[in-house]
Design a protein that fits this description.
Blueprint (H helix, E strand, L loop, with lengths): L2 H14 L5 E11 L2 E11 L5 E2 L6 E2 L1 E14 L2 E14 L3 E4 L14 H12 L4 H8 L3 H17 L8 E8 L6 E7 L4 E7 L3 H13 L9 E4 L3 H10 L4 E4 L1 H20 L3 H7 L3 H5 L7 H8 L9 H16 L4 H16 L4 H12 L7 H4 L4 H17 L5 H12 L5 H9 L2
Helix pairs in contact: 2-4, 2-17, 4-16, 5-6, 7-11, 7-13, 11-12, 12-13, 15-16
Length: 426
């Protein structure tokens, strides 16, 4: 080897942490037309050195070799490829077995450990697969396969045996009505299961994934969810012992959306009401204490000689629901909730009657919020990250791709297998 090749060989040996039984025998460059040149490094096993059986670790002789290549980290901006005639150990106990290479995370990998860690770090930082593939100059399919294997291995070693409080929520996978249901460990603040759909059966599928990794649906004591009937029925069927807590933010959101529908309908009734309610959307949706001076003046400026708009009554009902959440205990809140539902059912605001019917269906779940004050705020925060992942990737073709990108960032997975090998070789 010339001086440049010798220097590259030494650099590679140090970066890979090669032991005495391995040495760099050759380094060369290959031109690829208009593309950047490739750097190729050949590693060979030193003759006379025993190899370890991958099954028992016993040192034994070499039976034969098989030629293989791996993609490595770029060296000096050159795309680097490692070549090696991989020896097969002749173990007296287990027979002929292919030797595990010191730079591999798993057998038959196409990438070195350092390359895999580089891709994982990019994925953890929020980069899309397309951006990662462009940066490392690999195809999308190979990067997806790498991430899918790494996530599957890390999820396989995850332990969910201590999960007792979970939140279940959904997020849109793309346009239309395609949704993903997510289960979050509220105590550990991590995603533990993801499945397609938001039907009654999705709760069972989430529980199946939980139990595949040491969890137990019968040990779950509390489930925080939204007011979807599918989740309510699914939790009652799969985790009957768990207390169902309706997320406070979803109740407030229900009132806000109903109030805005009242405003929109009322504006269409006459030109007079259109003029009166013009530009008042957030006057009714915000708490009075949070209104700006202009919005306060708009609300106070409604002509007292005229009948108050139904939007104002809907706003009062929403404020009454917020007051219910300000009460100190479950019993007093339950009584106040019953009075509010009665008022709404006897009002002349159809949209609020629908809300009252929903509240009565969740008569037990809403007051249960006072037991622990559990909310899906953690899950809502995670969903914002999920949606940012989706927007960056312009959607995903299937749930598998979606899971592959969710778990590295939100699953708090242990990628120690990749890190251990990369640290040992660096």
């Amino acid at each position: 080897m010339d001086a440049q090749a010798g220097m590259l060989a030494q650099l590679f040996e140090r970066s890979m942490g090669l032991g005495p039984e391995w040495r760099v025998s050759e380094v060369w460059f290959e031109e690829r037309g208009g593309a950047p040149d490739e750097l190729h490094v050949r590693v060979e096993h030193v003759r006379g050195q025993a190899v370890g059986c991958p099954e028992c670790g016993r040192r034994c002789g070499t039976y034969d070799t098989r030629e293989r290549t791996w993609r490595h980290l770029d060296i000096w901006q050159y795309e680097t490829v490692v070549h090696c005639a991989v020896p097969r150990a002749d173990c007296p106990e287990h027979g002929v077995r292919t030797v595990r290479m010191p730079w591999e995370v798993r057998p038959n990998s196409h990438f070195t450990a350092l390359f895999e860690v580089q891709v994982l770090v990019m994925a953890l930082s929020g980069m899309t697969v397309a951006a990662i593939a462009s940066r490392v100059r690999e195809g999308d399919a190979r990067v997806w396969a790498l991430l899918r294997r790494a996530v599957a291995e890390a999820r396989g070693s995850a332990d969910y045996s201590a999960v007792e409080r979970v939140g279940i929520d959904d997020t849109a996978r793309g346009r239309g009505q395609s949704h993903i249901s997510t289960m979050v460990d509220l105590d550990a603040r991590r995603v533990v299961a993801v499945t397609e759909g938001r039907d009654r059966g999705s709760v069972g599928r989430l529980c199946d994934q939980l139990e595949e990794r040491g969890g137990d649906r019968s040990r779950v004591l509390e489930v925080t969810r939204d007011m979807a009937e599918a989740y309510s029925l699914g939790v009652a069927s799969e985790m009957p012992q768990a207390a169902q807590t309706v997320d406070r933010s979803r109740v407030v959101q229900l009132f806000s959306r109903a109030t805005d529908r009242v405003r929109c309908r009322e504006r269409r009734e006459s030109e007079e009401k259109r003029a009166m309610l013009a530009g008042t959307k957030y006057v009714w949706l915000k708490r009075e204490s949070n209104l700006t001076g202009r919005q306060l003046a708009k609300r106070a400026g409604l002509d007292p000689a005229r009948p108050r708009p139904r939007t104002a009554r809907a706003c009062q009902m929403a404020e009454a629901m917020r007051d219910v959440y300000g009460l100190p205990g479950r019993e007093s809140a339950a009584r106040a909730l019953d009075r509010l539902c009665s008022w709404m059912m006897h009002s002349n605001v159809p949209e609020m009657k629908v809300v009252a019917g929903t509240l009565r269906k969740e008569r037990e779940g809403i007051p249960d919020w006072w037991r622990r004050g559990s909310t899906n705020a953690i899950l809502e925060g995670l969903n914002s990250i999920v949606q940012s992942i989706e927007r960056a990737a312009r959607g995903f073709r299937n749930t598998g791709y979606f899971e592959t990108m969710i778990f590295p960032r939100l699953g708090r997975l242990d990628f120690s297998a990749q890190l251990a090998v990369s640290t040992a070789t660096h």
